[in-house]
Amino acid sequence: MALQDVCKWQAPNTQGPSPHLPQPGAWAVPPGCDPQTFLQIHGPRLAHGTTTLAFLFRHGVIAAADTRSSCGNYVECPTSRKIIPVHQHLLGTTSGTSADCAVWYRVLRRELRLWALREGQLPSVAGAAKLLSTMMSCYRGLDLCVATALCGWDRSGPALFYVYSDGTRLQGNIFSVGSGSPYAYGVLDRGYRYDMTPQEAYALARCAVTHATHRDAYSGGSVDLFHVRESGWEYVSRNDACVLYSELQKLPEPDKEEEEASRDHPEPASRHRDSRMPAETEIL
């Protein structure tokens, strides 16, 4: 006789997400209160910010972030790590509530490991992004704050996805998330090229995060830099943001170099002839 008939046992659904997460309606709130309304009225209102970025180029994916974790006007930790590895070929930048980001990356790491045990291989970057957005979308409206850029390399090559806690999922070449992202986008839009060398990509990422930390009060500390290659992710460096900014100030600006070059080598003046004057005749 089958075990199902004796014990009334049924195999769990192994195709969906793991059932260990609490249900959206299982929050500990006073009886008769809607969780979403209760959190909107009585939930904490703490300002937090960061600067994270990621971009795709010929040699893989670059991810960079600052290291300052803030809680309102208080700097909670100046050396936190906002780029979290998931497995050898996948990592992600984190922006939002630090606890939410840490928990959901732990959940994602577990779900991808279970996927690999069931299917015999890890899912693609697109599959990981879809899984994360699907799991977090169940908690829409419950004050969950996770904004991440998933950077990875799978069988189809390098890939970059933006995922937000309301279920938003976007694919692109450049993403910057956090309160310092407008300043980072200004540097990226000016210097980004797909055919950059790795050293040029490193310099662009450091420059973008450094300028954002200088203008954004909630960003600061150091600049972490990661590079996702075909062989896996690589931790490139951690540099102090203040030191980087002072070094960038000493470098000549590209516009000034072009102006000096044009003054040193002026273009020859072209000869203009008034159309009303008769053309010069050749004397034989």
From TrEMBL:
Question: Its domain of life?
Answer: Eukaryota
Q: Does the keyword Transmembrane helix apply?
A: no
Give the record's keywords alphabetically.
Cytoplasm, Hydrolase, Nucleus, Protease, Proteasome, Threonine protease, Zymogen
An example of a Gene Ontology cellular component annotation for this protein is: cytoplasm
Q: Where in the cell is it found?
A: Cytoplasm; Nucleus
According to its UniProt record, which residues of this chain constitute the active site? T50 (nucleophile)
* PANTHER family named in the record: METALLOPROTEASE TLDD, PROTEASOME SUBUNIT BETA
Query: What task does this protein carry out?
Result: Component of the proteasome, a multicatalytic proteinase complex which is characterized by its ability to cleave peptides with Arg, Phe, Tyr, Leu, and Glu adjacent to the leaving group at neutral or slightly basic pH. The proteasome has an ATP-dependent proteolytic activity.
Oligomeric form and interacting partners: Component of the proteasome complex. The 26S proteasome consists of a 20S proteasome core and two 19S regulatory subunits. The 20S proteasome core is composed of 28 subunits that are arranged in four stacked rings, resulting in a barrel-shaped structure. The two end rings are each formed by seven alpha subunits, and the two central rings are each formed by seven beta subunits. The catalytic chamber with the active sites is on the inside of the barrel. Incorporated instead of PSMB5 and PSMB8.
The entry assigns this protein to a family as follows: Belongs to the peptidase T1B family.
Its recorded name reads: Proteasome subunit beta
Per the UniProt record, the source organism is Lynx canadensis
